[in-house]
Amino acid sequence: MKKNKTFIKKSVCVFSFFLLMSGFVGLRQTIAAESVTFKVIVLNPSATKTQTTEIKKYLPQEVTPKDIIDLGGLELEYDTNKSLYYVYKKQVELIPKEISTFEIEVRDIWIVSEDKLSIFSDRVDSILRKLEDSEYYQKAKDLADTIYPRLNEIRTQQSDESLSRQRHIGAYRASLITLEEIEKDVLRMEKILVTAGGPPAPEMLADSKIKADAPSKTMTWIVIFSIIVFSGLLSAVLFFTWHRQAQITKDSLLHAKESAFGEKQTEKEPKSDKQEG
Q1: How far apart, in whole angstroms, are the C-alpha atoms of residue 210 and residue 207?
Q2: Within the chain, how many helices (H) and strands (E) appear?
């Protein structure tokens, strides 16, 4: 029995030496677009025993099923607790010293499109042209001089094929934060343009329209209370109307009853007189 326990412990120990590693093949061109390939490597370190293990690897948070080009023989599932997709395979059998590799090819979604970057550049260029002969030009140019380098930095980073998978994805997430800051600076430039007497950019007009059309919190509550009061008054009117109608109907029935029984009583009285005579 003791010998069996020792064997079990050794088996578990050997099993724990299975290596599940993730690597990065790099950005590579496909027919449709660029893709990122995630590599999962499983190794059986035993020189004598065939063993099995389970693979489970989470994908980056941006990945959805539509972004996956090839699962590489694995299956896809969604973790509701972590809100992440993952690839898995329950039983992977490896002979002694065998190394098995699984490659998951995903569309490279960690790229800010050039169209989006150009929109910012075009907005900045347009504002500077309109302020060129204005006293506000230098103030706007100071902001523009901080925007152009940041846009170029995004272009440079995401076109660098020497970046590892982790750095490539990290650079994309950092770029999104940078774009939010750039958006704020462009809005500052557009406010300078309005101050200088120039026409606001279409983006500002769209934002203003949205804000103007949106009711305030106070107005929203006023509308809600108005609806409640109106509903209450309408219910009261309907109730009293119904009650009045019911009362009128009741009175009419009583009057009809009294009239009917009154006529019968009148007809009976002459007969009684004749009998007495």
Answers
A1: 5
A2: 6, 7
The span from the first CA to the last CA of the chain, in angstroms, equals 130
Q: Which CATH architecture has domain 16-107?
A: Sandwich (2.60)
Q: What tens digit of pLDDT does each residue of 51-62 get?
A: 999 999 999 999
* Residue 62, C-beta contacts closer than 8 angstroms, at least 6 positions apart: 109, 110, 169
Report H helices in 83-201.
114-130, 137-158, 165-195
What global pTM score does this model have?
0.57
What's the CA gap between 54 and 177, in Å, rounded?
Answer: 37
Average pLDDT, integer, range 149-160: 92
CA distances in angstroms from 183 to 200, 207, 212, listed in the order given:
15, 13, 21
Mean pLDDT over each residue of the chain, to the nearest integer: 79
Q: What is the pLDDT of residue 214?
A: 54
CB 31: neighbour CB atoms within 10 A? Answer: 4
Q: Apex CA 163: angle with CA 161 and CA 164, to 5°?
A: 120
pLDDT surpasses 70 at 123: yes
Instruction: Report how far apart, in Å, the C-alpha atoms of 69 and of each of 18, 64, 89, 132 are.
Output: 28, 11, 18, 49
Alpha-helix residue ranges (DSSP H) falling in 58-136: 114-130
Q: What is the pLDDT of residue 247?
A: 81
Confidence of residue 270 (pLDDT cuts 50, 70, 90): low
Bridge partners for 170 per DSSP = none
